[in-house]
Design goal:
alpha+beta; 7 helices; 14 strands
């Protein structure tokens, strides 16, 4: 059951007391201070956990990011909130679920002047995820407002969350001999091996059938089919190493144990766009094919 949306100006937070301007009815108008209206931003979120209140972005063209700010309370925070979605469903501790977005950051206010350590500032369309030690992610207007008004401290620590456009990595793929085999864009977060297959490369071009498998000592001629265990889908990163998400435990341990060159990665475990970064990535397929001693390594699990 949908509940009528609510909005209010949250401007005055006197130190040691709680004071608000009267609620300001802003209706459902679609202000376009950013490229998207509040309604369009809200449509990219969905409440996912049945027993929790985690928000998840459901649009593949966007990613979500969180950042923390410390905002003085003296003179007011300078935020306006709007509830875009709520229902009669409650969390296990009795709080109503909903989606509340910042509809306006008052120019020159404490909130407008606050900057996160990672460089972000609050803007229209952000949602409040946490206030001090109170989790308000995916909660309704009343719960968010209560958290912002709670406590008597001089500052409020706010963790905000927003959806941002997913950036693109331009990938150039070189063959073993250094010639260009393919060029394609890959959204941040995308997997390199899957992208190679999607863009027309075949298994024999991705896997080296003369390389000893990491997961089967002294066994060459087969591969794990993308399970992330054999280590035969190596690529050499020629440019854009900083765009890659660092190797996880299995790949990192295997590369170290086999003493592979530092710029070699397993394409099946290689995701691009670290921290939603965009740029240019150049990789060479099967670099071990040029070095017989790299093909012959039999150090395994």
């Amino acid at each position: 059951t949908m509940i009528a949306p609510r909005s209010a100006a949250v401007v005055v937070f006197a130190c040691g007391a709680r004071a608000f301007l009267p609620p300001v009815c802003r209706g459902r108008q679609s202000l376009r201070a950013q490229a998207l209206s509040l309604e369009e931003i809200a449509a990219k979120w969905i409440t996912t956990a049945r027993n929790g209140v985690a928000l998840k972005n459901i649009n593949a063209s966007y990613v979500d990011e969180s950042f923390e700010l410390s905002i003085p309370r003296q003179g007011g925070l300078g935020l306006e909130l709007e509830e875009l979605w709520t229902s009669n469903r409650f969390t296990s501790d009795g709080r109503r679920r909903g989606l509340v977005l910042i509809s306006r950051v008052v120019p020159g206010s404490n909130a407008a002047n606050a900057t996160a350590a990672t460089g972000q500032t609050l803007r229209r369309g952000d949602t409040v995820k946490r206030v001090d030690d109170l989790d308000v992610e995916g909660l309704d207007f009343d719960a968010t407002l209560e958290a912002l008004a709670s406590g008597d401290g001089q500052r409020k620590t706010i963790v905000a969350q927003r959806v941002v456009e997913r950036r693109t990595v331009d990938v150039t793929v070189l063959d073993v001999d250094g010639s260009v085999r393919a060029r394609f864009p890959l959204p941040a977060g995308g997997n390199l091996r899957l992208a190679l297959l999607y863009n027309g490369l075949r298994d024999p071009e991705i896997y080296d059938d003369k390389t000893m498998r990491f997961d089967a000592i002294a066994n060459a001629g087969t591969n794990c089919g993308g399970e992330g265990t054999c280590g035969t889908c190596l690529v050499a990163v020629q440019d854009g190493m900083d765009l890659l998400i660092p190797p996880a435990r299995v790949e990192k341990a295997a590369l170290a144990k086999q003493k592979r060159p530092p710029r070699w990665r397993w394409s099946c475990r290689c995701n691009v766009g670290l921290d939603n970064s965009g740029g240019t990535l150049v990789v060479q397929l099967r670099p071990q094919a040029n070095f017989q001693d790299e093909r012959d390594k039999v150090v395994g699990i």
